[in-house]
Specification:
The complex is a heterodimer of chains A (514) and B (314).
Chain A (H helix, E strand, L loop, with lengths): L2 H28 L3 H18 L5 H27 L12 H11 L1 E3 L5 E9 L9 E6 L5 E5 L2 E4 L6 E2 L5 E3 L3 E3 L2 H6 L1 H5 L3 E2 L4 E6 L3 E7 L1 E4 L4 E4 L6 E6 L2 E4 L18 H8 L1 H35 L8 H8 L1 H4 L2 H11 L6 H6 L9 H30 L2 H9 L4 H29 L2 H7 L18 H10 L6 H32 L1
Antiparallel strand pairs in A: 1-11, 2-3, 2-8, 2-11, 3-4, 4-5, 6-7, 9-10, 10-11, 12-13, 13-14, 14-15
Helix pairs in contact in A: 1-2, 2-3, 7-8, 8-13, 8-15, 11-16, 13-15, 14-15, 15-18, 17-18
Chain B lengths: L1 H4 L6 H10 L8 H35 L19 H7 L6 H32 L5 H13 L6 H14 L8 H9 L5 H10 L4 H9 L4 H12 L1 H17 L2 H6 L8 H7 L5 H4 L1 H35 L1
Helix pairs in contact in B: 3-16, 4-16, 5-8, 5-9, 5-12, 9-16, 12-16
The chains are: A alpha+beta (514), B mainly alpha (314).
Amino acid sequence: MTKPIALAIKWVLIAAAMVGILWIATRLAAAGNTMAVVIAGLVGMGILAVYATRRAVPLKYLVPGLLFMTLFQVWPVLYTANLSLTNYGDGHLYSKEDSVKDIIAQSVREVPNTPRYKMSIATAEGGDATTADLVLLLTKPDGTMYLGDKTGLKPLAATGVEKTSIGKITKAPGYTVLNARQANARSKDLSAIAVPTSDGGGVKPVGLSEAFEGRATVTFDAGADKLTDTSTQPPSVYAPKDARWVNVADTTQSFPQGWKENVGLANYSRILTDDTIRSGFLKIFIWNVVFAIVSVLSTFLLGMLIALLFNDPKLRGKGIYRSLLILPYALPGFVTALVWKGMFNQDYGIINQTLGLGIDWLGTDLGAKAAILITNLWLGFPYMFIVCTGALQSIPQDVREAATIDGANAFRTLRSIIMPLLLVAVGPLLLASFAFNFNNFGLIYLLTKGGPFNGQDTSIGSSDLLITYAYRLAFSGSAPNYGFAAAVSVVIFLLVALMSIPGFRRTKALEEVN
Amino acid sequence: MSTVNAPVPADPRMETRVEQETGRTSPASPKRRGLGGSVWWRHALGILALVWALFPILFIYSAATNPSGTLNTASLLPSGFSTKNFVDLFNDSSRPFWSWYKNSMTISLVGALGAVFLGGCAAFAFSRLRFKGRRGGMMALLLTTFFPALLAIVAMYIIFASIGDALPMFGLNTITGLILAYLGGALGANVWLLKGYFDTVPRELDEAAIVDGASHVRIFFTMTLRLVMPILVTVFMLVFVGLYGEFMLASVFLNDVENQTLGVGLYGMTLGNDANTLFGRFTAAALLGSIPVILLYLAFQKQLVGGLTTGSVK
């Protein structure tokens, strides 16, 4: 009876998916990403093959999840592994050709007696004013209009364009002109723009509404693979070295623009051989393991004790206790971490005030670690309490009665009967908790940011986990090093996997007991 | 204390059983009152546990209603009631609290619904259908949980930056992009939890339905999904709470103050001098921001206990 309707729904959904993929593919094609278009096409054909036929029933249920997993989990992981073999990072963001182009464009100096353009700053229509690539809308004194971006100068059709009386373009079809405030916010990107022109020169912005035409002082000799800067006397020659252009006469000088290059296992060998990094890495690793183990054990013990405490049929008000005890776990993690950060404040925090202490919790090595463990105990024990309560309830009564009849006292029953059964039930969850805490970025970052930074190496904090260390390598500091951060990530993954394998073996053995 | 009382529960189960059989009508019997003595120390320790669990929450409340609204004037016990911090919070145009709230709710809701759907479908396949690579697939899923998305954060950043070039609505600094990134981790541990519960639903039901001529789609949507509702609720809750509290990806993805989540926004209120001067506003925001999750927990705590243990034991 519902067959035709179900069929109709099915084909509508398939058609919708196809239209969606087609639309994505056209956008990808417009952005010039051939590889992504091919992948989108394959995904589309895969969806048709799975859903339009009667075969492959399991895949019908697996494809949606697998698609997301492949795109946004497996692919980033492979990308990370690939990235860890490169020097990608500050000063090494694009290819060698691009670095040459950029250096030449940046070396542009204003050619005497050339006209200045009136300039407006814009993005492609629909682009985000804060992040999208900038384009320059230019008007020559004679009124001809141009469009400039990093690929070059193109004439701009006059239809639909609006100008002010001095020639500044205020509207152009296909582009969104930024207002002064938006443009000002992009001044850093603006200063990096140089539109290459056909005669080897370039157009560069001056301020927010003018641009000048200039000529490059650096030239590239592709045959010799060398750059020559004619603005100095005598001209200085730069040759490639360690993915940068280094001055041949004075090797301390180089251009800031280098290129991305495959460096093999250099990032990994740096972890193992660079003395400061190696000792720091080892220090972080030890604390990381201690942190994860102590967190799991302390939360489990406290949670289990409270669960045992309330595991008495005669006790009234268990529901109320449980609802209140669950609250620390129910607070969002960032709230917990940030509130405890306030409570641990040395001067104003209520912990020092209430207990009459003057401990510099977040500023000393031990204090920070203690603060983190205390916070995590508070944060994590309710989860263990819930889990243990459930597991205790699932232990059959007759097992306990049998122990009692055999003459075991309460402690003996707990140790020999209840604990092993409890561990079978919660073992996998303890492992999951370990793996989670091993990478508990949020807690550490929000509470201490990995600090305090008292050691000899100021890039390594005393409460850093590997993950917060990797994050700082990649995203903060003046010179992010994505390649090295990726290598650290891969090492973390291997460590967690290696440490978890014996644990999972053990849980399997435990399960057979049951 | 416990050493004195420990031997007492020699056979408390017998006690309750007898009580149950006799209709639990004698709470005032002398024997019960005698044994009631073994309960009071549990209450005493229970209250101690409550003090430990609740004092930071009391502190949040006290600081949020503290009229001066700074960290150095905040105390553990409430020092008067004032809504000043809340009013200041709502009127702070540089910190759009309600946008953060809306973003967090949207992301967590859509992300959790998506994760339940994707996970439920996959768990159905793993639990009900037989195919090559079933065991291997489950193990592979477990392996992916070792490599959380946050380890691949650099790659995620680069990938979503390039997605944003072609499809700006899914790129960096968009809520949709962040949801997609979260959905990448939708399978993993959730499928294990779901499959454990799916396995407890008797296969005979499916077989009976097949005999009656029902297709697998019909069985899945009209029968299985209803029977496993408790675990779906549990997973929804776990994912919702997880996404609501997620900080790392959100802080890397969302730059615009209007697009940020509560976590990222609140973090910004605790930096430098703001940590002291904005503490009242921060705790007011924290209090309001905690409400959805706390309500969810209190409403579904039974399912949570049931779901977590059933899923893991099986």
